[in-house]
Amino acid sequence: MNSPAPKFIISELGEYHGVQFLLARDELTHPELPGNKWRKLKYNLQEADRLGLNTLLTFGGAYSNHLAAVAAAGRLLGRRTVGFVRGDELAGQPLNPTLARARTDGMELHFLDRETYRRKHEPEVLATLLHETGPAYVLPEGGTNALALPGCAELARELLVRTDFDVLAVACGTGGTLAGLLSGLDGQRQALGIAALKGADFLRADINQLTQQATGRTYTNWELRTDYHGGGYARLMPELRQFIVDFQQRHGILLDPIYTSKLLFGLFDLAAKGPFQRGSTVMAIHTGGLQAWGGFGGEPG
């Protein structure tokens, strides 16, 4: 399968407190592999081909966008996929919509107890898992490694060519997308990450480490905000749900409940509080993840 054509649209969201907001609709770039998940997979898949490994092995929680994306990529590309899911208590329960779709797409699901899951990247633990599954190309949780960055860098470079902006903003889970955007910006403009999980201060070091691995550089033109997680990674507070409903009514765009909703909620709040310069333009990125609504009772409406 060829990579999705970079033909996403850019939606104008209007002016808030003197700041212009744009939204790069990366969730529209591919019907089954939208947004940053495809971009992070692209060069990893090429590396798996180079190594002659047809099996993709990866990790994720019960509602992981990454697991869903790897399973879809496996079906589309004719790859075997294996997913290790956090929480062995899930093994005897009916599959949620995310996991059911992953299995329909051909992914072999294994459920790990949480202690083993925390140790999944230790060499002896990983060796045991590979002994069970056979040779495989291992993708980390969330798909973030040095090879994830070039695909995200392509998005930043395209945005620089297509339009003018002062700040490029994205939601952060593992930090890989922001790290890739930084390498693509190459010191131009400012970048802002909004963490989607609690206690995300560690991401600052992770992002610097990723850019160093991928480009030999670290960057200073970025900031990470950790105060808009909305109660935690998979929490959807009533205030955030109402924001999503209001945003869809105003702009005709559905946001996901975990990432881009928190990004835009945070950006609009920051615009009201004043850290953005009046007259500046903020480009936000819709990274997809709409399949996660299956874990929240379906899309709002």
Automatic annotation (TrEMBL):
Residues 10-288 form the Tryptophan synthase beta chain-like PALP domain. The keyword Acyltransferase does not apply. Its cofactor is pyridoxal 5'-phosphate. It comes from the Bacteria. Keywords: Pyridoxal phosphate. It holds the Pfam family PALP. Belongs to the ACC deaminase/D-cysteine desulfhydrase family. This is 1-aminocyclopropane-1-carboxylate deaminase/D-cysteine desulfhydrase. It comes from Hymenobacter terrestris.
